[in-house]
Amino acid sequence: MSMHLPALQVIIPLLLAAVIFLFNNARIAYIVSVAASWLCLAIAIQLLLLVNDGSVIEYAFGGWEPPWGIAYNVDQLNAFVLVIVSGIAAIMFPFSWRSIQAEIPASLHVLFYTALLLCLAGLLGMTITGDAFNFFVLLEISSLATYTLISLGKDRRSLSAAFQYLIMGTIGGTFILLGVGLLYTLTGTLNMADLAERIGPLQASRTLQAAFAFLVVGIGLKLAMFPLHLWLPGAYATAPSVVSAFLAATATKVAVYALLRFMFGVFGADFAYGEMHVELMLVSLALVSVLFASLIALLQRGVKRMLAYSSLAQIGYMLLGIGLANVSGLTATLLHLFNHALMKGVLFLALAMVFYRTGGSSMRHMSGLGRQMPWTMAAFVVGGLSLIGVPLTVGFISKWYLILASIERGWWPVTAVILVASLIAVMYIWRVVEVAYFKERPADLPTVSEAPLSLLLPTWTLVAANIYFGINASVTTGIAQNVAQTLLGGVQ
Amino acid sequence: MIPLDQLLPLAVFVPLLGAVGIWLFGYAPNIREGATLLTSLVLLLVVGGLLPAVLAGERPTWLLVEMLPGLELKFVLEPLGMLFAGVAALLWPVASLYSIGYMRGNNEQHQTRFYLFFAIAIAASMGIAFAGNLITLFVFYEILTLSTYPLVTHKGNADALKAGRVYMGILLATSVGLLLPAIIWTWQVAGTTDFAAGGIIADKLGGPMLTVLGFLFIYGIGKAALMPMQRWLPAAMVAPTPVSALLHAVAVVKAGVFSVVKVVVYILGVDTLAAAPGIEWLLYIAGFTIVAASTIALRQDNLKRRLAYSTISQLSYVIMAAMILAPISIVGAALHIVAHAFGKITLFFAAGAIYTAAHKTKVSELNGIGHRMPWTMGAFTIGALSMIGVPPAVGFISKWYILMGAFQAEQRVAVAVIILSTLLNAAYFMPIIYAAFFKAPAPGDQQVHGEAPLPIVLALSVTAAATLILFLFPEVPFALAQAIGVQP
């Protein structure tokens, strides 16, 4: 059984998605989804423990040895991402039941859980697969499920947001497919490990460079790299709250992982940095998105949209870490995959609770809530502090390594941008805090009570994680540092 | 008897436990206040229990947690930290007593929240005092900023909100924008952030870069209110007076200058820093701040604002003393932390007493008030004498050592600044005392009030007495100050 763990990681949610659709009962769908998410987390943790010594699990699907069959490879890097994705799912799926009652028509609940499980299966699959084409297939599964999830939102604008994402996402997917196709014509294989070996002598090939460009841009679209980010704010702001929370915490993380996997696992650090100088592009784009997304976040009236722009800035931090091209920088990126999932998870879940009680999540809906929903707002404040990077929260750990990396490089302007963006984050988070704690509740809005325990419990689990991994970051940092060293390999 | 190294973390956890108690007993004000007083007394015992050890040259250590590989949160007991912790622990019970009188006397709202965050702020101060490395210091420094925010904005009105923005804005901008990169830079250069006698930079960084690092540190510690980072301090005066008294005259601002001295002595190193080109500019800026803040204080009619500018000026005494970079001036800096704490808390207590009894906030309204409130104004006089630096108040001793250091290092600018500012201090304190005792009350001033409530009078008498006693018996703080930076 345990030898089939890599396959089960993806097959469980994939199969159960079909099963709940057949049962066509919302409550069963919910229970099965939660069970699936917990199973996935258990498997992911088991996998991480197996590979934590630096070993690699190679799994040939259906017994077909690669390069003929599809291979799933688990190493420390993707086991870490698997834990992030399934961990977030395990916390947010239980949360979803109450939350969607208020936001999605009852007739669509089964569909919601089917799409959610498919999305999870796709994300986990993209992470675990060792096959470039299989990666594309799973990407499409997760993307299609995501479009569905976003369009389920009550807000009618979610339809156009979903459509916009569909167009952009399809373009991104096509670019990825083109890149994979070019690699196949060049090397005759789709297995990532094989690809990495055969690419070695072809460094100067124009085709290889084109493949690299297609893949980076395609993945860049999926992870909302500036200026390919236009789909993200609309999608996050109008999707049902729990969907925004789940996507913000997982989808872009997997895209960043994919970028890392292709850059380092397939093309190799020497090619990416030495031949293509991808760091120049990454650093400049990242700086723009860190600075401008933060500024735009400051101007938003809808808190969800504000958090969406803040996510763009945070994605910028992750790209910046890759662009800094040293061990500390990559460590920061990897840590931030985990840490950002925790902090944005809390913030979006807190908003979901506000929506559940007040029917909206604009600044106006939040005024005076500090008194009426103390636990919800306290969670929001902790999430916000983490986002700012206050010590004893996970955000601080990421910031620490990112700044360290920029200082090691001697790139002072980069340090300055990181710090300025942190201060802008103080401003946009504090706007919400002031509204919630100092403003009186508008007379036309109903007095509300604290969110139910079934919503508070998952949220506060994430809050606790934010603090625990902010105080005792040795485990996460240890993994991230190990992976960063492996990825960079020979470089420097 | 609890072993010493376990007493160390207790200093942080006792106030935190107290905070939990305050929260739990929020429904019963008498039990809640009892919890505050009891906690403050237990803390005093804990900190007092550490004193003999540090005087005997022991340096117990307590490892809290390894935050990152090679980066630990840990506490180390050393003389400078002991001095700061001792001051805060001594004054907390007095300030609690005062708070009870003040908060009840003025019928303030949300008292549970007030005492809760007050206790957390004290815990954070203890964490700063006993921090064993820069990262621990930074962590508690930020906790102190955040936990005092609800205290500054206590009134919840538009003024409080605005003041809160300035407060958080400047303190977070400096600490995140300057102090954090300075700490990370230090870590990158030295491979550690542990405090060590003689500093950890030594020959690892030199020339102009060292000067830049020095500036990053001193300006990054915004709580030290070196100009132009001083605006948060007058803004914070919208807080209830006990907050201004303990936090913005003692804990928060002292955390600032304490961190400055700590960084100069244990991170940058006095001798290393002396070789940095242009570092004397920090001394000049501190000198400028002393004079400029005193001049502004002269023109403030609001009593608390006048005291706030006086605080800014006095804080820069400590920074200037540290930047003279002579061993004897470091002693002066450390002593001034103690001296100013007792003097300034007395002054703020008196300002709060006047507000509670007479509802007056302006200097110009105080004519003849000394006859109505003799205890209050008597204590005020002693506090003012200490600020000016006149015997028999403890302010004289610290000023003496700073002056000696300035002469020894032949820093004529510093000597001139001290003389000038002494005159200015006298110029903005003496008129208040004169008016209170010798001017006739303004016509129409009813003066129906008497002394402030008993807890308030008791508290300010105690601190005024302490100001005198410390002048007569300065042995303990002096012994601690002399042990700073000396390898045990």
The spatial strand order of the largest sheet of chain A comes to: 1-2
Mean pLDDT of chain B: 86
Mean pLDDT of chain A: 88
Largest sheet: number of strands, sense, barrel closure of chain A: 2 strands, antiparallel
- Work out the strand percent of chain A: under 5%
Give a brief rundown of this model.
The complex is a heterodimer of chains A (492) and B (488). Chain A has 492 residues and is mainly α.
Write the layout of secondary structure elements.
The complex is a heterodimer of chains A (492) and B (488).
Chain A: H1 5-23, H2 26-51, E1 57-60, E2 71-74, H3 76-103, H4 109-128, H5 132-151, H6 157-187, H7 192-199, H8 206-222, H9 231-238, H10 241-267, H11 269-275, H12 278-299, H13 303-324, H14 327-358, H15 363-366, H16 369-372, H17 374-388, H18 394-409, H19 412-438, H20 453-471, H21 474-488
Helix pairs in contact in A: 1-2, 1-4, 2-3, 2-4, 3-4, 3-10, 3-14, 3-20, 4-5, 4-10, 5-6, 6-8, 6-9, 7-10, 8-10, 9-10, 9-13, 10-11, 10-13, 10-14, 12-13, 12-19, 13-14, 13-18, 13-19, 14-17, 14-18, 14-20, 14-21, 17-19, 17-20, 18-19, 18-20
Chain B: H1 4-24, H2 29-55, E1 61-68, E2 71-76, H3 79-105, H4 111-130, H5 134-152, H6 158-190, H7 207-220, H8 232-235, H9 241-268, H10 270-274, H11 280-298, H12 303-324, H13 327-358, H14 369-372, H15 374-388, H16 395-408, H17 412-438, H18 454-472, H19 475-483
Antiparallel strand pairs in B: 1-2
Helix pairs in contact in B: 1-2, 1-4, 2-3, 2-4, 3-4, 3-9, 3-13, 3-18, 3-19, 4-5, 4-9, 5-6, 5-9, 6-7, 7-9, 9-12, 9-13, 11-12, 11-17, 12-13, 12-17, 13-15, 13-16, 13-18, 13-19, 15-17, 15-18, 16-17
Structure notes:
The complex is a heterodimer of chains A (492) and B (488). Chain A has 492 residues and is mainly α. Chain A has a domain at 291-492. Chain A is built from 21 helices and 2 strands. In chain A, strands 1-2 form a two-stranded antiparallel ribbon. In chain A, α1 runs antiparallel to α2, α3 (76-103) packs antiparallel against α4 (109-128) and α7 packs across α10 (241-267). In chain B, 74% of the residues lie in helices and 3% in strands. Chain B is mainly α and 488 residues long. Chain B has one domain. Classes of the chains: A mainly alpha (492), B mainly alpha (488).
